[in-house]
Amino acid sequence: MSETPTRTAVSSGFGRTLVFVYGIFALSATGRSSVQLSTKATQLYALARLLPPPDRAEIFRPVRTNAEPAAPEIEIKPVVLELVPACLAKAPADTAAALSGKDDVSLAFFTLRGSNPEVFRSAKADINDVYGPLVTALAQCITENIDVIGKVTVIGHTDSVPVQASNPFASNQGLSEARAKTISDLLTAAGVPPEVLAAEGRAD
After folding, report:
1. 43-57, 92-106, 128-142, 158-172 — which one is most confidently predicted on average?
2. Which of 102, 110, 155, 190 has the fewest CB atoms below 10 angstroms from its CB?
3. Is 89 left (phi over 0), alpha (psi -120 to 50) or beta?
4. Which residue has the higher pLDDT, 134 or 79?
5. Per-residue pLDDT tens for 3-26?
6. DSSP bridge pairs for 110
7. In 3-state terms, what secondary structure has residue 55?
8. CB 135 within 8 A of CB 111
9. For residue 42, what pLDDT is reported?
10. Which of 78, 79, 149, 77 is nearest to 110 (CA)?
11. Mind listing the pLDDT tens digit for each residue in 22-79?
12. Exposed / middle / buried, residue 90 (Cβ in 10 Å: 0-12, 13-18, 19+)
């Protein structure tokens, strides 16, 4: 009964001895490796000190430039042809008061209206001869500025008194259209290209 514990004790003791011896061997082997590596490192360090210092690469630093100033705003102004002053300046002195006008951005309005004498005879489409030179002067102004004039519209008007049944124009509308055509024909005769002219009537 006393042998079993002894074998057990030896077995246990042998196990501890193996572990202990293995531990010494491991430490011894690790120690030799450390010594060898330390010697190599010392040699490499000594050789590295003999090498010239490496050239340093230049660091690229982009140069900052000030932002370009904003372009100045361009003010776009409406084009006013100012035909009215140019045409009024050409009007004959004796009938200049019958012609008035107004410039707009893209239009020029002219009004031909006389009272003593009237531009047109009552209920007729014939112009009073005294206004002929005035229409001719207006035509001259138009031809001198034809490059900037796209179209000329002549609008005829009448009063509110109905024409008589015997009148060849039959109505105020017909009479106003005939008066517009009279002025248009005079402008053409004075040199205004017919393709830029249009005539229409407005019965008042």
Report:
1. 128-142
2. 102
3. alpha
4. 134
5. 444 333 333 333 333 333 333 333
6. 101
7. coil
8. no
9. 72
10. 149
11. 333 333 334 444 445 556 667 776 776 776 666 666 777 777 667 677 778 887 776 5
12. middle
Strands 197-202 and 152-157: parallel
- Reference 140, options 199, 99, 201, 80; nearest CA is 99
143 neighbors 170 (Cβ within 8 angstroms): no
CA torsion through residues 173, 178, 184, 187, sign: negative
| All structural domains of the chain with their residue ranges | 83-202
According to the CATH classification, is domain 83-202 in 3.40.50.620?
no
Side chain identity at residue 186, one-letter code: L
Is the CB of residue 157 less than 8 Å from the CB of residue 113?
Answer: no
**Phi and psi, residue 92, nearest 5°:** -60, 145
Alpha-carbon distance of 49 to 56, in angstroms, equals: 17
173 CB burial (10 A radius; 0-12, 13-18, 19+): middle
Distance from C-alpha of 204 to C-alpha of 165, rounded to nearest angstrom: 18
